[in-house]
């Protein structure tokens, strides 16, 4: 029981670290306040495009829901970070959805409070510096999407919108764990841009990511 509890605590800590890094990257890209749906859309892209950078997808499988991607553990981590004073609730308003009210919440990192924590994380020997580079590149590409279309971008993603994945079905994709073989259509599509590059040009992971997110911006805005 104690071992299970310790594993859960480790997962919670990793989720909090991940959220801090995502919010820090978004803030650096000019997205200082991020709504809940946009946050989870960004988290989804960090999952499906991680393999383009040679990184594992942090979570992997996700349940396809009508409203778009949602990660309960990351949502819980957001709440915990608010309690720790590292993240603040930037906006809290009511939203009428056809007679059904829901809270519209946006979060923002407390940059001054979080800076020492992030600096400490950067100095950890087991921290892969590629992760920060990936999140930064993705955040700038995500910021280029019109604010009212950022959550829609996830809905038109190659994997999320792939045929065969109906609502309330688990979306699976290969991430090198458990011998899974389901295809990650998003990473495949990002890598496919190499086919259109001149023979003497090798697109970097950053360029592949940028091109793919530009495609998502166009699709979401169509």
Word description of this protein:
With 222 residues, the chain is of the alpha+beta class. The protein has one domain. 50% of the residues lie in helices and 12% in strands. The strands form two sheets. It has a three-stranded antiparallel β-sheet with strand order 1-4-3. A hairpin with a 2-residue loop joins β3 and β4. α1 (2-28) crosses α5. The longest helix has 27 residues, at 2-28. The chain is globular, with a radius of gyration of 18 Å. The termini are far apart.
Helix content: 40-55%
How many extended strands? Answer: 5
Question: Which stretches are low in confidence, meaning pLDDT under 50 for 5 or more residues running?
Answer: 1-7
- Average per-residue pLDDT, rounded, comes to 89
Nearest-angstrom radius of gyration? Answer: 18 Å
Oligomer: single chain
Number of helices: 8
The SS-based structural class is: alpha+beta
Q: Terminal Cα separation, in Å? A: 51 Å
Q: Numbering strands along the chain, what is their spatial order in the largest sheet?
A: 1-4-3
Could you give the topology of this structure?
Layout: H1 2-28, E1 34-35, H2 36-48, E2 62-63, H3 72-84, E3 87-97, E4 100-109, H4 111-122, H5 129-143, H6 150-155, E5 170-171, H7 185-192, H8 205-221
Antiparallel strand pairs: 1-4, 2-5, 3-4
Helix pairs in contact: 1-3, 1-4, 1-5, 5-8, 7-8
Please tag this protein with its features.
alpha+beta; globular
Explain briefly what this protein structure is.
This protein is an alpha+beta fold and 222 residues long. Helices cover 50% and strands 12% of the residues.
């Amino acid at each position: 029981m104690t071992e299970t509890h310790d594993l859960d605590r480790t997962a919670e800590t990793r989720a909090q670290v991940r959220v801090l890094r995502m919010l820090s990257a978004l803030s650096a890209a000019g997205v200082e306040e991020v709504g809940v749906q946009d946050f989870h859309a960004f988290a989804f892209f960090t999952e499906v495009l991680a393999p383009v950078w040679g990184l594992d997808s942090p979570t992997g499988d996700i349940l396809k829901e009508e409203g778009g991607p949602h990660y309960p553990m990351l949502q819980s981590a957001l709440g915990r970070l608010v309690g720790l004073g590292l993240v603040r609730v930037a906006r809290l308003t009511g939203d009428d959805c056809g007679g059904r009210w829901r809270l519209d919440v946006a979060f923002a990192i407390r940059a001054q409070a979080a800076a020492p924590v992030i600096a400490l994380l950067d100095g950890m020997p087991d921290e892969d510096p590629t992760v920060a580079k990936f999140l930064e590149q993705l955040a700038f590409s995500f910021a280029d999407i019109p604010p009212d279309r950022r959550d829609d971008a996830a809905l038109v993603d190659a994997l999320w919108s792939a045929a065969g994945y109906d609502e309330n079905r688990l979306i699976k994709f290969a991430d090198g764990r458990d011998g899974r073989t389901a295809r990650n259509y998003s990473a495949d599509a990002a890598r496919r841009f190499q086919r259109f590059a001149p023979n003497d040009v090798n697109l970097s992971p950053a360029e592949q990511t940028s091109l793919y997110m530009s495609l998502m911006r166009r699709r979401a805005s169509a």
